[in-house]
Write a structure and sequence with these properties.
By secondary structure, the protein is α+β, with helices and mostly antiparallel strands. It folds into two domains: 1-42, no CATH class; 44-144. It has helices at 61-72, 79-95, 103-117, 119-130, 135-144, and strands at 11-19, 22-29, 35-41, 48-50, 56-58, 100-102. Strands 1-2-3 form a three-stranded antiparallel β-sheet, with no helix packed on it. α1 (61-72) packs across α4 (119-130), α2 packs across α3 and α3 (103-117) packs antiparallel against α4. It binds zinc ion.
Length: 151
């Protein structure tokens, strides 16, 4: 694995454990000593995502994770928690048993899961997802924010 710090592809695994439905490995870079974590998954979600405008692409857990990670940036949300959110959304998507899922459905599920975890991450994701043009819409969404969850 490439070290995210120095980009050297030389590391040793110092810890391996199961984390939900993934294998989590703690690694140490042999060049700079930086420690980082990687996750490995068995690909279980096989379906296409229908984007706006009808374009299709294969579902990617990485892309899902990137979107959620961005929303959670600098929030008190651990890497493990982010993985849990990604897995929760993915499990819901798999449970649909569809060969094609629209991007709107995915976005709605991500918002649903984020709303249970962190209000700021939720609003951030929602604001990117819905591409607000007016502040008014944004305020309305915040007011409509689901009340359940642990915040
Ligand atoms: Zn390194």
């Amino acid at each position: 694995m490439k070290c995210p710090h120095c980009k050297e592809d030389d590391d040793k695994v110092i810890d391996t454990r199961m984390s939900g439905d993934s294998v989590r490995r703690r690694r140490e870079c042999l060049k700079c000593g930086n420690r980082f974590t990687t996750y490995e998954y068995v690909e279980k979600a096989v379906f296409s995502v229908v984007k706006r405008g009808g374009r299709r692409e294969a579902y990617s857990r990485e892309k899902l994770r990137t979107g959620i990670e961005k929303a959670c940036a600098k929030r008190p949300i651990s890497d493990d928690k982010i993985n849990e959110i990604v897995s929760d959304v993915e499990n819901l998507l798999v449970a649909l048993e569809k060969s094609e899922v629209s991007y709107d459905v995915i976005g709605t599920l991500i918002m649903q899961e984020l709303s249970k975890v962190d209000p700021v991450a939720y609003v951030r994701f929602a604001s990117v997802y819905r591409e607000f043009r007016e502040v008014g819409e944004f305020v309305k969404l915040v007011e409509e924010k689901p009340k359940q969850g642990n915040f």
